[in-house]
Design goal:
Elements: H1 11-29, H2 38-42, H3 46-74, H4 77-95, H5 100-128, H6 131-159, H7 165-185, H8 200-211, H9 214-244, H10 249-272, H11 279-302, H12 307-318, H13 321-333, H14 340-361, H15 371-390
């Protein structure tokens, strides 16, 4: 793979960067249909199994904080090669984990190492493209991120028809091995003369500057709480559909895929409306929709509403992630062009760290109730609204 000018980025490079961004959503969503059957096989609880999502997102959060600054100092290729190699190893650990403790360790390492490719792919995009071309490139990468949650549960559900959840991690190891091969073929995109001096010390200084800024802190907390509500849905939906409504793993994967299509549709609609409404209006609307939807879902769980209204509520609640995610991110980044990498890392850390916290909480009530999931969603959504009105200045 050779470096292209900012006027044109090769198709192969776009595919490579897109696959790098896809590893973490694939590793999260591919085995969602298997969650309800895993407690019995590993002799553990539903909460511990849901924690396998949480510890991975903790790993993703930490990896984002370190991956970007390291690549700015050492170049893109070497951290990318090491990250993908370790991701192969961690996926194999997950596949052959004899206990929940080993699986949790493997999932944490999978998130930590997989996130390196996600962060560096964005840095490589900036190396290869600029201006309008960079905007188009990021749009393509975001599309991959949107498609992965649609495809992954469908594939995972079909795999469970004839194999076990362990094979899913073998497939993830093969996927990471393909990325490793691509990393070895990749030609360094950041020449030595353009690399940052100071490394992690400079990144730490930038992080402190950003956190002291009240509006940016507010947006970071919005990312934390709003994504906390969304990941409550990610972690708990398979148990709600499969254990409460007695759907099969395949039927769950279809409904999850439909909701993911709603996320893509909402993203497309918000893009069309970007010239009509402001980012703050979009953010306010989406956070209210998230809060109201979470409240309705909690009521539905308490009063045992049937499948169709519950599915409808979750569809309109889940689709808000593309709205508040993009609006909050855009508002937070506006002032910090020179610290874009550090700002992006903090926002990414906030959203993934929240996911790690809420994932085990939604399973505290056991495998046959969605009430803890509803409470967690509502509390997180309401706190995101408080951050909006209490910390974010009108822009």
């Amino acid at each position: 793979m050779t470096q292209e000018s900012s006027a044109k980025v090769s198709f192969i490079m776009v595919v490579f960067l897109g696959l790098l961004t896809a590893i973490t959503p694939l590793a999260t969503d591919l085995y969602l249909p298997a969650l309800p059957i895993m407690p019995g096989e590993l002799n553990t609880t539903a909460s511990n199994i849901q924690m396998t999502i949480g510890v991975m997102t903790f790993g993703i959060a930490l990896g984002q904080l370190f991956g970007g600054p390291i690549s700015d100092t050492m170049g893109r290729k070497m951290p990318l090669v090491v990250g993908n190699l370790l991701c192969v190893i961690s996926s194999i650990i997950c596949a052959f984990a004899p206990s929940i403790e080993i699986l949790l360790l493997g999932r944490f390492l999978q998130g930590l190492t997989g996130s390196v490719g996600v962060v560096i792919s964005k840095a490589i995009a900036r190396d290869f493209a600029s201006g309008q071309e960079l905007t188009k490139l990021f749009a393509l990468l975001m599309m991959v991120n949107g498609l992965a949650p649609v495809i992954a549960p469908l594939v995972g559900g079909q795999l469970l028809l004839f194999t076990t959840w362990r094979v899913i991690f073998i497939i993830l190891a093969i996927f990471s091995a393909i990325l490793l091969l691509g990393s070895l073929l990749f030609r360094e995109s950041l020449p030595k003369e353009k690399r940052v001096t100071g490394g992690l010390a400079t990144a730490t200084k930038n992080y402190l500057t950003l956190i002291k800024d009240k509006p940016f802190l507010g947006q970071s907390l919005i990312q934390f709480f709003a994504f906390g509500a969304f990941f409550s849905y990610i972690s708990g939906s398979s148990f709600v559909y499969q254990n409460i409504f007695q759907l099969s793993a395949q039927e769950f994967s279809y409904l999850f895929g439909i909701n993911s299509c709603g996320i893509i549709l909402a993203s497309a609609i918000s893009g069309r409306l970007s010239n009509v409404i402001t980012s703050r209006q979009l953010l306010t609307f989406s956070l209210w929709q998230l809060t109201i939807g979470s409240l309705l879902f909690l009521v539905a769980m308490i009063f045992e509403w049937p499948l169709i209204p519950v599915t409808t509520i979750l569809f309109f609640t889940a689709c808000t992630v593309s709205l508040f995610g993009s609006a909050s991110f855009s508002m937070a980044m506006t002032k910090y062009g020179k610290m874009a990498g550090s700002a992006s890392a903090i926002l990414g850390f906030a959203s993934m760290f929240a996911a790690g916290i809420v994932s085990p909480i939604v399973g505290l009530g056991g495998e046959h109730t969605g009430i803890p999931m509803g409470i967690t969603m509502l509390v997180c959504a309401a706190l995101s609204l408080l951050c909006l009105y209490g910390l974010v200045e009108k822009e």
